[in-house]
Amino acid sequence: MKALRSLHSRLLNVGARISHRLDGTAARRAELERFDQLSHEEQEPLAMAQFRRLLEHAFANVPYYADAAAQRQLRAGDFRAYADIRELPLLTKTIIREQGERLLSSDAGSRGAKKNHTGGSTGEPMTFYQDNQYRAYSQADKVRCYERCNFAIGQPLVFLWGSSHDSAAHKSAFQRFIDLAGRNLIWINTFDLSEQRFRECARSIVAHEPVFMVGYVAALTMYARFLKRSGLPAPRPRGIQASAEALTEEDRELLREVFGCEPFDRYGCREVGLIAHECDAHRGLHLSPLCNLAEFLDTKGEPVSPGETGRVVSTNLHNYAMPFIRYDQGDLATVSAEQCTCGRNTTLLSRIVGRLCDTIVCPGGRLIHGGFFNNLFFGRDEVKQFQVVQENETDLVVRLVLAEGTELGPLQDDLTGILHEHGDPALNVSFEILDHIATSASGKYRITISKLQRPFG
Cα(206)–Cα(226) distance, rounded to whole angstroms? Predict the structure, then answer.
């Protein structure tokens, strides 16, 4: 059996490598790797050349950016250095929701644009489009980051993931068979968590013998705490990729202790994809500026110095269907003053600030991962902002900022029904309608706030 599983892995890996050569993934991956080895002085003109091509397209084909260029008398050819980017206005979630299709390129359809949504870690849901070129570079970046985590495609893989949008392709028995046969993958939807669910998952994960585990930070750490407390055997992967929330030093130590390997931090968002990823030197997260040009700004809109924390502003260089240029994500990150020892010369982030989600504990013991609420509001344009507060064991307060003209009654009934179905009918769900939800002291919205102790603590 072990020999068959090894043969299965090798065949999948050979198939993936052939596919990646044919579809261009291998070439794009090599392009990104070569860029990382260049000096900062060599990287900047290459990244800015990509930026100018995107800008030229946006000024000519995207109504919102055409207006911005005319009003500010901007020309794509004038943008030669990173500092020049600040001549452009910031793009916010509010602008994206308000401008809508004026941010779409006139040739979006021919570029293979597909609709995407986010509930958003900041509690501001919105809709956007991404094209074939965006997906191609995202795939290449994903493959090389998997390899940084000591994983080769085809080896046993486990996802502990929370997005209903992503999990939709892994629900049926046939889809799960395809996952195992075609990707050597077990996908665990972490929105439905309880001790019994952890126990069932623990057995299947250990039996799969994963070489690599990918998951939300909260899901991985809750799973680790459960294994530690229950005494059940833990898998021993070669690498763990943690994403979606901030990975604290406490979390790292727990994952090392339980799984016996070093976790790798990944930072990105659904809107622009991967922004930064840790390497095996573990000195910080490397930016990927040939995919996303990232700025880190203070309260006056000026770049922060190394060692300081700033707002993350990203420009994806490959999504021509709906360009996100200087997109203010609402996240905070600290720029490292160090140079990595791994040989890559891209800027490091020492930490991501403020992406922690609380977990809601239902009266019957079921756990609702904080990211569940992102997906509860996934694609709901009538909800501008949201926040969920667990006051005690039974009382859950849902705070909403609604779009003008939204009828509260049907929305309230729908949300309550979903929370009772996926959470617990014993939850006492109440609603507060607000004009605005204030940020925390860190400058972030906390989408979930639990006043109870951490589960499995």
Answer: 14
pTM listed for this prediction: 0.82
Return all residues near 139 (Cβ < 8 A) that are at least 6 apart: 25, 28
Is 215 within 8 Å of 243 (Cβ atoms)?
A: yes
Whats the size of the chain, residue-wise? Answer: 457
Answer yes or no: are the C-beta atoms of 321 and 129 closer than 8 Å. Answer: yes
The Cα–Cα gap between 415 and 394 comes to 16
78-130 pLDDT, tens digit per residue, is 999 999 999 999 999 889 989 989 999 999 999 999 999 876 555 567 889 99
Q: Locate 93 and state its tokens.
A: 């979630």
Residue 255 pLDDT class (50, 70, 90 cuts): very high
Instruction: Give backbone dihedrals phi and psi of 297, rounded to 5 degrees, phi first.
Output: -115, 150
Q: 198 to each of 79, 192, 302, how far by Cα in Å?
A: 52, 10, 46
Are 111 and 131 a contacting pair, CB within 8 Å?
A: yes
> Quick one: tokens of 129?
């489009």
Q: How far apart are CA 148 and CA 214, in angstroms?
A: 13
State both tokens at 134.
């965006």
DSSP tag of 363:
T
Element (H, E) at 449: strand 448-450
**How many beta carbons lie within 10 A of that of residue 360, not counting itself?**
25
Q: Which three-class secondary structure state does DSSP give residue 289?
A: coil
- The two tokens of residue 6 are 């090894």
CATH code reported for the domain at 2-37+133-284+336-353? 3.40.50.980
Q: What value does the CA radius of gyration of the chain take, rounded to a whole number of Å?
A: 22
- Asked if 115 contacts 307 with a C-beta cutoff of 8 angstroms, the reply is no
Domain ranges of the chain: 2-37+133-284+336-353, 360-450
State the architecture of 360-450 in CATH terms: 2-Layer Sandwich (3.30)
CA angle 288, 292, 297 (to 5 degrees): 100
Q: What gap in Å lies between CA 270 and CA 172, rounded to an integer?
A: 24
Q: Which amino acid is at 10?
A: R
Q: Is 334 helix (H, G, I), strand (E, B) or coil?
A: strand
Q: At what angle do helices 40-61 and 63-72 cross, to 10 degrees?
A: 110
136 bridge partner residues: none
